[in-house]
From TrEMBL:
PROSITE patterns: SUGAR_TRANSPORT_1. InterPro entries: MFS, MFS_trans_sf, Sugar_transporter_CS. Its main location: membrane. It comes from Ranitomeya imitator (mimic poison frog). It catalyses: folate(in) + H(+)(in) = folate(out) + H(+)(out); methotrexate(in) + H(+)(in) = methotrexate(out) + H(+)(out); pemetrexed(in) + H(+)(in) = pemetrexed(out) + H(+)(out); (6S)-5-methyl-5,6,7,8-tetrahydrofolate(in) + H(+)(in) = (6S)-5-methyl-5,6,7,8-tetrahydrofolate(out) + H(+)(out). Keywords: Cell membrane, Cytoplasm, Disulfide bond, Endosome, Folate-binding, Glycoprotein, Membrane, Symport, Transmembrane, Transmembrane helix, Transport. Belongs to the major facilitator superfamily. SLC46A family. PANTHER family: PROTON-COUPLED FOLATE TRANSPORTER, ZGC:174356. It is found in: Apical cell membrane; Basolateral cell membrane; Cytoplasm; Endosome membrane. The keyword Transmembrane applies. The chain crosses the membrane at residues 15-36, 48-68, 80-101, 107-129, 166-183, 242-267, 288-312, 318-342. It is a multi-pass membrane protein. It comes from the Eukaryota. This is Proton-coupled folate transporter.
Length: 358
């Protein structure tokens, strides 16, 4: 909440470099702990360093703000979706490479790769990434002004119900990410348990299918945008996600579970659309502030997902093994309703604008 508004003044490059420096120091702490065989509690020191410099969420916030800076409104949704698809590709590569590498050589060498990638990316941002903020201004980092800008984002009235739309879209984003992360946390234990009893190979295939939804959602988004408004494309994403989760909740065989993965081929189209909708509600000089809020919402979603779904799953095993997935499908009806209602009732009719002018 400091770094995001600060980037609106001093630019995105500084805010992009800071988390990579922090994550590099975090990996250094991890390597020292492993080489010296220290108590695992010392790993917390690395996490604190990474967290104070923004961590992974700040990298995402700065990248999405950068995309908002350099794109026009019609193309922004697809550009944001490309950035989200990069997360899926990276997750797939990391799962495959990291898992096999760890089995062969242990934990230390993969962390050296992480160290090298963080250092390379920091230098890449410094020397190769152009600044996207047009009007740069000197600004202090540690000031109450940044918190005030976030407060004003949600309290100052705007045109066409901007304030209420910001709140509703943030709520929708919170629920979508909570369900996504909650389901992701449960999938492996669900696949390992009876009657599926998957082995490591099948779990790897399932993980690959989960990450492929980023790419299939990107392709579907590009296709459906030709004939539908973004909000209705998001509703199709909700339909894909909900139908897949319902099948997960009832799956007792491997083919049925993979059917659920197939039905969720378009499930990742909703989050880039919500990010884009939020971005279009604020001015150019507020993109960093907005996406820092979105990053905070995402962090809260991770906490909610772990606490809620990890509690619901064991508590409902006695009457329905897959109830947690059905619960997630029911929760998704709320953001689906929010986006549908905003699309139907949120657009101010043209005749009312003309009446006000006259």
């Amino acid at each position: 909440m400091l770094l995001g508004p600060w980037s609106d003044q001093v630019g995105r490059r500084s805010v992009l470099i800071a988390p990579f420096i922090g994550l590099t120091l975090q990996v250094v702490v991890y390597l020292v702990v492993m080489y010296q065989e220290l108590h695992v509690g010392f790993l917390l020191l690395g996490r604190i360093i990474g967290g104070l410099t923004g961590d992974f969420n700040m990298i995402l916030a700065a990248c999405f703000a950068y995309i908002a800076d350099v794109t026009d409104r019609p193309s922004r949704t697809f550009r944001v979706a490309i950035l989200e698809a990069c997360l899926g590709i990276a997750g797939m590569i990391a799962s495959i490479v990291g898992g096999h590498w760890r089995k062969v050589q242990g934990y230390i060498n993969p962390f050296w790769l992480a160290f090298a990638l963080y250092v390379f990316t920091a230098f890449y941002v410094y020397f190769c990434v152009r600044e996207s903020v047009k009007d740069l201004k000197p600004s202090r980092l540690f000031t109450v002004k940044h918190y005030q800008s976030i407060f004003q984002l949600f309290t100052v009235p705007g045109e066409n119900g901007r304030r209420s739309k910001l709140c509703l879209y943030c709520l929708a984003f919170l629920l979508v990410v909570t369900v996504h992360m909650g389901v992701k946390d449960l999938m492996v234990i669900y696949e390992l348990s009876f009657p599926l009893c998957w082995d490591s190979d099948l779990i790897g295939y399932g993980s690959a299918a989960e990450h492929l939804t980023y790419l299939s959602s990107l392709a579907g988004l590009r296709l459906f945008q030709l004939c539908l408004a973004d909000s209705w494309v998001a509703e199709m994403g909700f339909l894909s996600n909900i139908s897949g989760l319902v099948v997960f909740s009832l799956a007792t065989t491997t083919p049925l579970l993979f059917t659920g993965y197939g039905l969720r081929f378009f499930s990742m189209a909703t989050t880039p659309i919500i990010r884009s909708k939020l971005s279009k509600l604020v001015d150019e000089g507020e993109q960093g502030t907005l996406f820092s809020v979105v990053a905070c919402v995402e962090g809260i979603s991770f906490i909610l997902a772990t606490s809620i779904f990890n509690s619901v799953y064991p508590a409902t095993l006695y009457f329905m093994r897959g109830f947690a997935f059905l619960f997630g499908a029911i929760v998704l009806l709320i953001p689906a309703g929010i986006i549908g209602l905003i699309e139907i009732y949120g657009q101010k009719p043209l005749y009312s604008q003309f009446a006000e002018i006259s």
